[in-house]
């Protein structure tokens, strides 16, 4: 019947569609364009590293104040908040002769089991002194389970220039408060 | 019968006895009214205003004296214009209390807001954080913002040692005076007080040395904030990290119920360690209190360096050697058991000794046990029930030093109107609270007791007493003296035997001497002679450490086997040493001086290869071909119940039964009774009276020194060098304070000895150097020698005291 008969051109088009040549060509053009004319995204890891986003949650660090005192006061709130039970804290008492952190209490033991951690950042939220923060280190690999236990000295950041390492000898009455005094919110 | 009052609390009808406070009535139906200053164990003072509620009372028509009725016939209520403190208001008929209305909640919220104006942001570092009513209330009312200026916050000292055991944080104190009132009213040692006023009100201590009380730890329990903290637990752990193990204190015959809080620690490689001891409520034993000895030194020995440790191989060969020795010596063996052993151990020991045909003795210097088992307290007894019409007699015992909680409970009984008679040769702390004080000279104990019924007022009181409880101790007495004294005391209370709240109580020096006595173990009359040529098996008994004469006797023994928890002087003389578990590491039961059998549960795992005493005994017995239960204490207890008449019908399940106790404490609620624990693990069971026994009539004649001779008498101090106490370093200063011999100033002067000077004490051929302590409250011609403090004096003896030569001092 007359309506069902196709023109020759129509038949060629059908054939090309059927073999997907057209699509392949289109795709190849895009790829070749990107290959020759666009900036490359491949990073030569580990020689080269991509910067992580500002909110990236990598391996934790324990921070220090500028004077070198540890921010962590050994309160265990991070351990309490941790859904994976990855943190273990033991605390002890500071003295002016042997001071680790401001106030009366410091963490004498601080351990995070990186195999347990799910990098949720709850510990960071719970910390009253911003002592623990999730850093940008994601290169965690171990050949032994024990290596996954990060102790306090592994987690503590280096002393900033001008600061002193802990424990420090401090003047009596200088560091009486564990949590830094808040500014009056009315100000 | 007290009148009952009907009232409505939050529209729920309640019926309570007249005189009940609104706050307690509310708690009864589960309504928690927040409190700070009110404590159910103390009189209300209405200081903090936290418990504000709305209270309405029925209106009375003045003309007719009848209640005014609403239209529907219900009585018309009149609510006051102001909120009222529910802790100071007793209930009245028809009262309506509203605790949940906007007005009541608003009042409570404002009090919290005011308290918080001066409260530091310490929750993260505060030891109370996690079990703090101020925290809980703040969470509940949640004023997220303060309307007060931060720079007006009150700042104060944060680290104030009140004594060497308790620290005060002045910033955290909310001035509720609970600590002060506890010391004044319950402990009877008013060493705390307020200083200054207003925002500057400070808790201070008036004693020297600071906070000089043996009940000081309790103030940290009831302090509703973290203002008071203990030296042993400071920053030890957060409360939510702790696991709890129910136990019983093993430092004196009271047997306070307590809870060991444990957690894993890095220093033990992740093993459990005990972090603190807290009271567990038992209104019939220790209520919700415990003494500082139990709290600060009761468990430390578990982790002591001096624990006996063997490798598994050594252990095996030690057990084999012990078996070999005993299989040979058979009936030529003497077992000596200390009162630190649990009932299960004592029973196993008794069985083993019987199977060998050997002798088993209780090792103690405190006799009279046959009387306390026959005429001791029986079921239904409770020192807390004693009051008006009842008589309590304390003879030759310094309860404050020997059994602090009994001191506290007897003081309270006297406060309720009981007649308290204290008879002693010297002044004791209990004198202050007693109705009658009887003074005698050392040596006259027995005659004094015999003479009491003939005294006018005391005799009258004894005769008419509704209930009579007699406590007898070993102040200035040895084995023979205490036995004679017990007999004299028993004569006073004999015919009341078997009646609740009547009986004779021995103030023993160990937690389970009563249990040993109930099992039929008795002290040897002439111990040193018994040991000669025999094989001696010592369990929790350090003969050599206590007395050089006994050490000599041990050397004359054929063989010595020592089974103990810690390194002792006797261990050095032993052929075989078997390391036993500490009681904190195992299960078992103790029988306290009131004859209450109480269960303790394991808190931490065994150190090294140590095993419970009964299990070691069973292992040794097995090697001798004697089959004894060595695996489960429960099975041993079942055997005890079946074979020991005094323990008939007991089982672990029965001992673990609990019933509701008032006041309700330890539930983390806003009706805050303190951090002591609720008792969910058993109140224990008091034994039925044992059959009356005919006492062995041991001849006793008190030692009478000549005119110019000095009589040395043994006395007991709370803190000493006892085997399980010594490893607790926290109390070292307290032990040192009392180390020395006590003399009357006149006696000291005669000997040319000043207070604190070095004296030389000669006693039965031995010479000791000791500090002379001068005390005008004792009599002349005697010298008090504390037990377990280096000078071996087991019974009164003539001693020579002189000023130590300077050369010897150096
Ligand atoms: S990131 Fe989350 S899982 Fe990891 S330690 Fe912190 S709280 Fe625990
Ligand atoms: S890291 Fe922060 S939350 Fe964790 S213990 Fe230290 S201070 Fe407390
Ligand atoms: S120290 Fe504690 S118990 Fe004592 S007054 Fe202050 S808040 Fe109350
Ligand atoms: S009174 Fe006795 S049983 Fe109670 S805590 Fe003190 S030492 Fe332990
Ligand atoms: S005023 Fe009632 S609890 Fe303090």
Account of the protein in words:
The complex is a heterodimer of chains A (187) and B (810). With 187 residues, chain A is of the alpha+beta class. Chain A has helices at 8-19, 21-37, 77-81, 122-126, 152-155, and strands at 59-62, 87-93, 105-113, 132-137, 149-150. Among the domains of chain A are: 9-37; 60-155, Alpha-Beta Plaits (2-Layer Sandwich), CATH 3.30.70. A three-stranded antiparallel β-sheet of chain A has the order 2-3-5. The longest helix of chain A is centred in the N-terminal third of the chain and has 17 residues, at 21-37. The radius of gyration of chain A is 30 Å and the shape is elongated. Chain A starts with 7 loop residues before the first helix and ends in a 32-residue tail after the last helix. Chain B has 810 residues and is an alpha/beta fold. Chain B folds into five domains: 4-100, Ubiquitin-like (UB roll); 112-230, 2-Layer Sandwich (Alpha-Beta Plaits); 312-366 and 517-650, Rossmann fold; 369-507, Dimethylsulfoxide Reductase, domain 2 (3-Layer(aba) Sandwich), CATH 3.40.228.10; 710-809, Barwin-like endoglucanases, CATH 2.40.40.20. Chain B has 24 helices and 34 strands. In chain B, the strands form eight sheets. In chain B, strands 1, 2, 3, 4, 5 and 6 form a six-stranded mixed β-sheet that branches. In chain B, strands 22-16-15-23-24-25 form a six-stranded parallel β-sheet. In chain B, strand 12 and strand 13 (257-264) form a beta hairpin. In chain B, helix 7 packs across helix 19 (613-623), helix 8 runs parallel beside helix 19 (613-623) and helix 12 runs parallel beside helix 14. The longest helix of chain B is centred in the middle third of the chain and has 18 residues, at 312-329. Chain B is globular. The interface between A and B is medium-sized, with 29 and 19 residues. One iron/sulfur cluster binds at residues 81-84, 86-87, 112, 117-123 of chain A. One iron/sulfur cluster binds next to helix 4 of chain B.
């Amino acid at each position: 019947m007359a309506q069902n008969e196709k023109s020759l051109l129509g038949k060629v088009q059908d054939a090309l569609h059927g073999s997907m040549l057209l699509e392949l060509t289109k795709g190849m053009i895009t790829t070749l364009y990107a290959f020759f004319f666009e900036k490359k995204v491949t990073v030569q890891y580990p020689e080269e590293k991509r910067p992580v986003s500002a909110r990236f949650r990598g391996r934790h660090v324990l921070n220090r104040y500028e004077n070198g005192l540890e921010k962590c006061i050994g309160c265990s709130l991070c351990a309490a908040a941790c859904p994976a039970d990855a943190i273990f804290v033991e605390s002890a008492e500071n003295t002016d002769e042997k001071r680790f952190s401001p106030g009366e209490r410091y963490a004498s033991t601080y351990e995070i089991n990186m195999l347990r951690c799910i990098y949720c950042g709850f510990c960071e939220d719970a910390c009253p002194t911003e002592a623990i923060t999730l850093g940008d280190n994601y290169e965690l690999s171990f050949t032994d389970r024990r290596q996954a236990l990060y102790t306090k000295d592994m987690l503590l950041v280096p002393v900033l220039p001008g600061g002193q390492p802990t424990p420090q000898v401090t003047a009596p009455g200088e560091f009486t408060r564990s949590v830094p005094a808040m500014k009056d919110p009315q100000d | 019968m007290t009148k009952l009052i009907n009232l409505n609390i939050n529209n729920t009808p309640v019926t309570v006895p007249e005189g009940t406070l609104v706050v307690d009535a509310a708690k009864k139906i589960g309504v928690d009214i927040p409190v700070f200053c009110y404590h159910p164990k103390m009189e209300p003072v209405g200081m903090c205003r936290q418990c504000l509620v709305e209270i309405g009372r029925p209106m009375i028509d003045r003309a007719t004296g009848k209640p005014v009725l609403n239209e529907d016939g219900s009585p018309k209520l009149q609510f006051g214009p102001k909120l009222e403190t529910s802790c100071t208001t007793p209930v009245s008929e028809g009262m309506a209390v509203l605790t949940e209305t906007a007005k009541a909640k608003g009042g409570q919220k404002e009090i919290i807001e005011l308290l918080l104006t001066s409260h530091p942001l310490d929750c993260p570092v505060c030891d109370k954080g996690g079990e703090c009513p101020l925290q809980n209330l703040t969470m509940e009312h949640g004023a997220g913002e303060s309307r007060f200026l931060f720079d007006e916050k009150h700042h104060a000292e944060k680290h104030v040692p009140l004594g060497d055991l308790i620290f005060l944080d002045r910033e955290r104190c909310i001035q509720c005076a609970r600590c002060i009132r506890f010391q004044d009213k319950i402990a009877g040692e008013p060493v705390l007080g307020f200083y200054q006023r207003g925002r500057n009100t400070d808790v201070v201590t008036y004693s020297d040395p600071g906070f000089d009380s043996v009940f000081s730890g309790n103030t940290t329990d009831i302090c509703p904030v973290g203002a008071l903290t203990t030296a042993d637990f400071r920053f030890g752990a957060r409360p939510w990290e702790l696991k709890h193990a129910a136990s019983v204190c093993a430092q004196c015959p009271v047997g306070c119920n307590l809870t060991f809080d444990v957690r894993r620690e890095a220093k033990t490689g992740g093993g459990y360690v005990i972090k603190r001891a807290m009271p567990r409520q038992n209104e019939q034993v220790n209520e919700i209190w415990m003494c500082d000895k139990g709290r600060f030194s009761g468990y430390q020995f578990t982790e002591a360096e001096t624990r006996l440790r063997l490798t598994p191989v050594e252990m095996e060969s030690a057990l084999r050697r012990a078996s070999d020795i005993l299989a040979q010596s058979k009936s030529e063996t003497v077992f000596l058991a200390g009162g630190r052993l649990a009932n299960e151990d004592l029973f196993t020991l008794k069985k083993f000794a019987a199977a060998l045909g050997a002798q088993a003795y209780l090792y103690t210097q405190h006799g009279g046990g046959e009387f306390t088992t026959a005429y001791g307290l029986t079921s239904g007894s409770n020192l807390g029930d004693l009051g008006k019409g009842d008589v309590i007699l304390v003879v030759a015992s310094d309860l404050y030093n020997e059994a602090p909680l009994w001191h506290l409970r007897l003081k309270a009984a006297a406060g309720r109107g009981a007649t308290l008679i204290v008879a002693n040769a010297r002044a004791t702390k209990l004198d202050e609270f007693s109705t009658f004080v009887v003074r005698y000279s050392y040596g006259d104990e027995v005659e004094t007791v015999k003479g009491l019924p003939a005294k006018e007022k005391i005799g009258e009181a004894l005769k008419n007493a509704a209930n009579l409880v007699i406590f007898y101790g070993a102040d200035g007495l040895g084995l023979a003296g205490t036995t004679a004294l017990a007999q004299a005391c028993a004569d006073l209370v004999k015919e009341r035997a078997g009646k609740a709240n009547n009986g004779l109580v021995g103030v023993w020096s160990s937690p389970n001497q009563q249990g040993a006595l109930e099992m039929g173990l008795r002290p040897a009359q002439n111990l040193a002679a018994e040991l000669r040529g025999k094989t001696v098996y010592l369990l929790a008994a350090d003969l050599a450490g206590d007395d050089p004469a006994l050490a000599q006797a041990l050397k004359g023994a054929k063989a010595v086997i020592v089974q103990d928890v810690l390194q002792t002087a006797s261990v050095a003389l032993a052929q075989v040493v078997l390391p036993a578990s500490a009681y904190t590491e195992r299960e078992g039961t103790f029988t306290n001086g009131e004859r209450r059998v109480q269960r303790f549960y394991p808190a931490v795992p065994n150190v090294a290869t140590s095993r419970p005493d009964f299990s070691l005994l069973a292992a040794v017995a097995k090697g001798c071909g004697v089959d004894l239960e060595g695996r489960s204490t429960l099975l041993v207890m079942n055997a005890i119940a079946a074979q020991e008449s005094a323990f008939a019908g007991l089982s672990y399940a029965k001992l673990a039964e609990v019933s509701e106790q008032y006041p309700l404490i330890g539930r983390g609620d806003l009706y805050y009774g303190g951090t002591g624990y609720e008792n969910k693990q058993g109140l224990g069971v008091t034994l039925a009276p044992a059959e009356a026994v005919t006492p062995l009539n041991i001849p006793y004649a008190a030692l009478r020194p000549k005119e110019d001779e000095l009589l040395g008498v043994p006395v007991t101090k709370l803190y000493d060098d006892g085997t399980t106490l010594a490893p607790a370093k926290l109390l070292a200063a307290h032990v040192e304070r009392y180390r020395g011999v006590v003399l009357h100033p006149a006696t000291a002067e005669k000997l040319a000895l000043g207070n604190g000077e070095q004296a030389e004490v000669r006693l039965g051929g031995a010479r000791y150097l000791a500090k002379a302590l001068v005390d005008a409250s004792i009599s002349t011609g005697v010298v008090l020698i504390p037990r377990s403090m280096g000078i071996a004096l087991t019974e009164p003896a003539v001693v020579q005291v002189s000023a130590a030569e300077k050369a010897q001092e150096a």
